[in-house]
């Protein structure tokens, strides 16, 4: 049966146009920057709240940012069989991932957490290849490894030096589990993003996470004794929430228009952003290693997005 013009066969991805591949890259880059800013803000306010309560406030605000746009947009009609998988992806992406990250920041520094979380693109590439969602190329692999090395250089000894606490390994394990959760979601979201509008998937997934986080936060006493944040703490929470609503919409939109590895590799910008913000607002010193790391990340992003012909595209479904 002939395929109508402009139709994309099930399991196949359209051939990327050079002019259009830059837009998903820009969306993913913006998300990476917002994630880095959010890590710094979370580290600032985590001492004033518990992990699940902070995550609940974060995504409740994020959902409220998306809701007005959803209400004036065409309604998406989700098939009943897709509701549970999308809800579970939202709970994992927005609930479990962030709760684990918030929990880890109680034991380790934001720099160390950012370095461990930077393994997410590598995990995504391995999972996407194992599940047949995309092919691994030498340039893409080298690009991912260069961005990871660049993150290590940029953060310097702050990323490996620990506080010496006995429970430090708990923080390391929690961040790695958080990165693994994000990698799994980045690969599994794509079929639903191809089927439904990105905005609708984003809002429904975030709403599911809010319901899930409400139970966790209730166990922390959120509803009986809400967190008492300072003015600066509320401003930080507001920033985290708004950036989450915008950032994760851009994240899912990028996943719908590019392979998972090429989207998640931009998370290397998050620790670069965090370090830069420290220099800008906290007068922290920029070292030569940071410059080396920045160059390594830039080179890695270029290699990860370099076109290698047909072998670089997603693997078509059987």
Summary of the model, kept short:
The chain contains 13 helices and no strands. The N terminus and C terminus are likely disordered.
Question: Which keywords apply here?
Answer:
single chain, 318 residues, mainly alpha, 0% strand, disordered N terminus, disordered C terminus
Structure description:
- This protein is an all-alpha fold.
- The chain has one domain (25-310).
- It is built from 13 helices and no strands.
- 48% of the residues are buried.
- The model is unreliable at 1-20 and 309-318 (pLDDT under 50).
Percentage of residues in helical conformation? 55-70%
Largest sheet: none
Q: Which ranges are low-confidence, i.e. pLDDT below 50, for 5 or more consecutive residues?
A: 1-20, 309-318
Mean pLDDT: 80
What is the number of helices?
13
Which class of secondary structure composition applies to the elements? Answer: mainly alpha
Global morphology: globular
E-strand count: 0
Terminal-residue CA separation: 18 Å
Can you write the helix and strand succession as a string?
A: HHHHHHHHHHHHH
Rounded to the nearest angstrom, the radius of gyration is 19 Å
Estimated share of beta-strand residues: under 5%
Overall number of domains? 1
């Amino acid at each position: 049966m002939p395929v109508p013009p402009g139709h994309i066969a099930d399991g196949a991805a359209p051939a990327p146009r050079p002019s259009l591949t830059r837009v998903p890259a820009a969306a993913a880059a913006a998300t990476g920057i917002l994630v880095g800013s959010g890590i710094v803000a979370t580290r600032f306010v985590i001492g004033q709240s518990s992990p699940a309560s902070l995550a609940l406030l974060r995504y409740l605000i994020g959902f409220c940012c998306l809701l007005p746009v959803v209400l004036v947009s065409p309604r998406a009609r989700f098939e009943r069989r897709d509701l549970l998988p999308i809800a579970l992806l939202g709970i994992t992406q927005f609930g479990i991932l962030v709760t684990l990250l918030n929990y880890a920041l109680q034991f380790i520094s934001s720099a160390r957490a950012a370095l461990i979380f930077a393994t997410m693109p590598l995990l995504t590439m391995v999972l996407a290849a194992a599940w047949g969602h995309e092919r691994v190329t030498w340039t893409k692999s080298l690009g991912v490894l260069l961005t990871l090395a660049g993150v290590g250089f940029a953060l310097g000894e702050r990323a490996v030096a620990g506080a010496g606490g006995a429970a430090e390994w708990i923080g390391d394990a929690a961040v790695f589990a958080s990165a693994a959760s994000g990698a799994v979601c980045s690969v599994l979201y794509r079929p639903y993003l191809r089927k439904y509008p990105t905005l609708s998937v984003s809002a429904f997934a975030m709403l599911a996470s809010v319901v899930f986080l409400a139970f966790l936060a209730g166990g922390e006493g959120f509803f009986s004794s809400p967190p008492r944040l300072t003015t600066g703490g509320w401003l930080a929470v507001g920033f985290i929430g708004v950036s989450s609503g915008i950032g994760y919409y851009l994240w899912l939109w990028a996943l719908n228009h590019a392979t998972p590895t090429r989207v998640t590799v931009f998370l290397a910008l998050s620790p670069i952003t965090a370090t830069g913000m420290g220099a800008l607002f906290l007068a922290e010193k920029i070292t030569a290693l940071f410059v080396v790391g920045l160059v390594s990340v830039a080179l890695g992003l270029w290699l990860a997005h370099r076109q290698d012909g047909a072998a670089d595209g997603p693997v078509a479904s059987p």
